[in-house]
Design a protein that fits this description.
- By secondary structure, the protein is α/β, with parallel strands linked by helices.
- It folds into two domains: 23-118 and 245-316, Bordetella uptake gene, domain 1 (D-Maltodextrin-Binding Protein, domain 2, 3-Layer(aba) Sandwich); 122-218, D-Maltodextrin-Binding Protein, domain 2.
- Helices cover 46% and strands 18% of the residues.
- It is built from twelve helices and ten strands.
- It has helices at residues 2-21, 38-54, 69-77, 91-98, 106-109, 134-143, 158-170, 182-191, 201-210, 257-271, 274-282, 295-316; strands at residues 27-31, 58-62, 84-89, 110-120, 122-126, 149-152, 175-178, 196-199, 213-218, 244-252.
- The strands form two sheets. The chain has a five-stranded mixed sheet with strand order 2-1-3-10-4, with helices on both faces.
- β1 (27-31), α2 (38-54) and β2 form a beta-alpha-beta unit.
Amino acid sequence: MAMLKHLLLAATAALSFAASAFPTKPVTLLVPYAPGGSTDVIARVLAENMARELGQSVVVENLGGAGGTIGTAKVVRAPNDGHTVLFHNMGIAIAPSLYNKLSFDVSKDLEPIAHAGDVPMILVRNSKFAPATVGELIKHMKAKPGDVKFAHAGVGATSYLCAVLFNQATGTSTTMVPYRGTGPALMDVLAGNVDMICDQPVSTSAYLQAGTLKPYAVATQERLPILPNVPTFAESGMPGFQLAVWHGFYAPKGTPAPVIDRLNKAVRAAFATPAVAKRLAELGVVLPQGDRLKPEALRDHTTAELKAWPPVLAAAGASID
């Protein structure tokens, strides 16, 4: 009994030392997507300010491919000392339902650190596409099944999921047109080669302001401050239709709790920085508040999302070998 108590005290002391010493070198923040996307942009805004709190550089590393699964697998295999952190989006909860073979288990191989905000989706159209409201669009789609060309950034991308959810919610069908990334898809919507796309405000707001894209609705409960004239789907006759790209920080399984807490504190400090909050608001990011900032809140949210997407993707017949 005395030996067990001694071992427990020694373990507690070791964890306390790990927290007080951490970080002892620069922290790698791995983004499992190519540079330039919204997830990468948000990561870089937060990394710079987390570094001030941690007293070490936070270096963003991009490792894209296979819907974020390659980068995620690298973090899963990394030492669990807190010096390698994953910054992912909702794709982390979609991958297990989409990919038939994964080298990791999201719920078992990663430790949640902090929820990092939600970026709502907005449905936009080419400025010359006739249906001007969500109601007119649905009427058109039902009258001419498959006539509307819905662009997306590939199976499993948020733009794809939004299209699938929209079709399922309205009982309509469209011609789904895949692209290698949101950028090329958006360019084809602007050119009029396809009719519409579901994307994020950071990618679309400039075109909306210029009038080269026209909005249908935002998939949020309330209107966005950066797009106050764009109605919500609820206001457009589709109550309950909401979709946001959520983001989160994760560490390899077994990372000591004090280190997780230290990283969580750094994320909170970044959120509390006025310049960061302002920049993220410009990107359309809705920051978590209160208990949603806790690591366990991200764990619960990830678990719920892992359960929510399988029936949606199964109904769409989406899978990748």
